[in-house]
Design a protein that fits this description.
This is Alpha-1,2-Mannosidase. The chain is an alpha+beta fold and 99 residues long. The chain is 49% helix and 15% strand.
Length: 99
Amino acid sequence: MAIAGDVDAAVAHHEMLYMVHKKNGLLPEAFTTDLDVYWPHHLIRPELVESTYHLYKNTHDPYYLEVGAELLESIEKYTRVPCGFAALEVRVILFVNIN
């Protein structure tokens, strides 16, 4: 949205996703309209971090630098394993094996 120039919609959508992230420690794969976890797996998708970057580039608001740092810290804290990163279940922060 931000890349396409719809920055207001991108800001609103990003804030909703960030609220889900803050509520759960990581962004689950799917959530309900009440922002509750529906499908609890976190597959280390980069879209929220990428959107945060594009919002910063469009707005120059330092808020997005802070959000980006928090998102990366959460990924590092919860998904880092000795050989790299692992998917996990958000509700209980359990590592999962998805084949």
